[in-house]
Every structure is written in C-alpha cells, then in structure tokens.
Design a protein that fits this description.
By secondary structure, this protein is mostly helical.
Length: 425
C-alpha cells in the first residue's frame, strides 16, 4: 500500500510538474503497446522463484506465446514500435494473471507467497518506469545545475573522470565496448545475483529476510530525491559535448572533457537544457554496483569474482564515459552502505550498533554534500588535505560497516567433543 501510494503521488507530480504521464500510466500502456522487454522479463524471472519448475515452464511458455500473438497482430496492422521494443507484453500479462490466480485460487500462505512473488516482479518493472519519470522531472524542474561546484571539489581527488576518460579513449574500441556493456547491463547482473539468493523460495515457501532486490529498489527510490536537492549533469555534459543526444558544447562551461582539466575558479550555478537528467549526485550506478558486490560475498567463487569485476568495471565506466565525477562515486558508496545497514537493521531488529552506523553514514553523506556545495574552492586549493579526507571519510564508513556486520553474523557453535574414555588396562 505504501508503494502504491508513492506511485500515485509520483503520477500526480509527473503530470503537474513535467506535463508527462506518470509510472502507473506508462506501466498500464505496456499491457497493449510494445514495451521494453528487459525489465518485464526480468520481473517475470523474479516472480517465478515462488513457482515450481513445472509452473515456471508453463509461465514462460505462456509469456512467449502471448508475445508471439502481439508481434503477429502488430505485423498484420503495420503498427510501428520503438527500436528494440518488439515483445514483453506477455511477461506483464503473465504476472498480472498470477496476481488474479493468487487472489481467486490460493489460500493462506500460498496466496501470500504468490502475491509477494508477483509484487516483486511488478516492482522491478515499475521501478524502471519510476526511475525514468524521476529523471525527466529533475530535468524539467531544475533548470540550473551545480556542476561547477562538484568539478571544483573534484580537484581534490585529481580530476579522476578526466584521467579515466583519456585512458578509456586510448583503449577504444575494446575498452569502450566492454565498459559500455557493463554499464548498460547493471540490472541484469542484479537479477542474476537476486535469482541466486532467492533460488530456494519455491521449496522453502518463504523469502529470505534480506536480499539484493530490496536494497536495489530502495536505492532507486531515495536516490532521485537527492538529485532534486543537488542537481548535477556530469562532466561530459557540463565540460564536454554531451552524450546520448542531450547536452552540447553550447550548454557547457567549455569543451574541456577529457583532455583539459577545468581551471580552478569561483563556482556558480549554471543553466542547462531541459532534457538532460540531473542524475549525478550521488552516483546510483556506483551505489547499485556496491550493493551487488556486498550481496555476492557469500556466494560461490564465480559469483564473488563477478561481483568484484562488476563493481570495478562500473566505477571505470561512470568515470570513463564522463557521466560522473569522483566525488559522486564516494557519495554513492556511502549512500549504498547506509541503506544496506538500515535495511538489515530493519529485518533483524534495531540495536545500538545498527542505529549508530546508520546515523554515522547519514552524517558522513550529508557532510560530503555540504562540503561539495560550500567548500569546493578550499578543497581545490588544498588537495593534499581534502583529497585524503574524502577517501578517509568513505573508508571509515566501509570499515564500520564491515566490523558491525561481522558481529551480526551468526557464530557457528563448536562441535561437541566426546567424553574421554578411560584407557583399557
């Protein structure tokens, strides 16, 4: 009910502030119009964790069959679809169908479990819509951005986006294609990890107390609120030619990225176009990749290696493509760890260590934003002081997180030792 209330509010805000349909309208349209298939089939995969293997095959077959019908009808009437939006309606119809089955044909725990599965799948699909709407709202309602402040503060870290951007250009096309794939398929990696964590739900009849999807959704829910408070478009837009069809050199301070680091000057808010999302502070890609890394630590070796690779590659992509400053990444790590420990504390019960860590992470995150906004010139003028302080602030949150969560892990009971037997004489 809380999620539904939030979606209704966002629907109203989207229509009044940005003049666009909200997530509920966009999701409803996908029952008929050609959708983007990835989020819907990923949601279907998550929903199927509550089903038996036979039911999973039936659900997948039904989704594919419905999609075949939709594709044939569109072909027959010559309906135009966006590039890559050829199928996906079937996955949505199957999830909605199982919601009806849960209400009309299931009872007790089976009904609750199936509704949780359907809700999880629909939330993943709606989360993508919600994120897209949020990004449009940030562009429509925040005409000025604070990139000059963040870029000046980033001088304390040595302008890492400019450095990694040059490295990535030197490795083109291999490095560009590899990091581009990692950056674009972050949600796929999250679904793979989530499916591993939820693999026993159908057998055990219950969800684990905490899993990656919850952290992923909460990061995506809270992050855009920070975008509204601290609108930033990124170095490739504010100091470069733009990307993905938005921005341009005429909107930039100067066309400097990635070969010429920006000069240290007194920063000020700057106007930018009305279509580029203000989605830099904090870096949610970094936050999500951090969450994936955390949730792969207890998996098999190949999953741990994949989580580590995805985190490193995502950091390289966010900087190398000019989408983020180094300061964004530090804020993203602190943001992710604070949300992760808050959700874990909510599940296991709040104790002193959990409250203190959430309060500490929130304080560090707020201090980072305040320093980026009000101390950027001082940070750029004394990089030998503020650069290590920024890294130390992030490292302190990481250290406290590791220490506290290790204390929360259940301790294995020592194996009982057999009573000593008297020696035979």
């Amino acid at each position: 009910m809380a999620t539904l209330g939030f979606l209704i509010i966002l629907e109203i805000v989207a229509r009044r502030c940005a003049g666009i349909p909200g997530p509920l309208t966009e999701q409803a349209k996908e029952t008929v119009f050609a959708p983007k298939p990835g989020p819907l089939y990923a949601g279907l995969a998550l929903m199927m964790v509550v089903l038996t293997w036979r039911q999973r095959f039936v659900a997948a077959g039904a989704a594919i069959g419905i999609d075949v019908v939709f594709v044939l009808v569109r072909w027959a009437v010559d309906a135009k679809a966006a590039d890559g939006h050829l199928f996906g309606n079937g996955a949505l119809w199957v999830m909605l169908g199982y919601a009806v089955i849960a209400v009309t044909r299931r009872r007790g725990r089976e009904r609750v479990l199936l509704l949780k599965g359907v809700g999880l799948g629909l939330l993943l699909a709606a989360g993508r819509k919600t994120g897209d709407i949020w990004l449009i709202i940030t562009a429509k309602t925040r005409p000025t951005v604070l990139d000059q402040y963040v870029a000046t503060a980033d001088q304390a870290l040595g302008n890492p986006s400019w450095l990694v951007g040059r490295i990535l250009q030197a490795t083109d096309p291999i490095g560009t294609h590899l990091l581009g794939l990692v950056y674009a398929q972050l949600a796929v990696a999250a679904v793979v990890v989530a499916l591993y964590q939820l693999r026993h739900v159908g057998v055990e009849g219950r969800f684990p107390r905490h899993h990656l999807v919850r952290t992923f959704l909460v990061i995506g829910l809270l992050g855009p609120g920070i975008y509204m408070l601290f609108p930033v478009v990124g170095p490739v837009f504010a100091y470069g030619p733009g990307a993905s069809g938005t921005g341009g050199a005429h909107w930039a301070v100067a066309n400097l990225w990635p070969h010429t680091p920006p000069p240290v000057t007194a920063p000020q808010p700057m106007s930018y176009d009305g279509i580029t999302p203000r989605n830099c502070m904090p870096s949610l890609h970094t936050a999500w990749a951090t969450a994936i890394f955390i949730h792969t630590r207890k998996g098999p070796r190949i999953l741990r290696y994949a989580g580590t690779f995805w985190l490193i590659a995502t950091l390289g992509a966010t900087l190398g493509f000019g989408y983020h400053y180094g300061t964004d990444l530090i804020a993203g790590v602190v943001f992710a760890l604070t949300i992760e420990v808050a959700l874990r504390s909510l599940d296991r019960g709040w104790d002193r260590s959990g409250v203190q860590l959430v309060a500490y992470g929130t304080t560090v995150f707020a201090a980072l934003l305040v320093s980026y906004r009000y101390l950027p010139t001082q940070m750029a003028g004394h990089p030998w002081l503020f650069g290590p302080l920024l890294i130390l602030a992030m490292a302190s949150v990481i250290h406290r997180y590791v220490r506290v969560t290790e204390l929360w892990e259940p301790k294995a009971a020592p194996a009982p030792q057999p009573d000593p037997r008297p020696e035979l004489v």
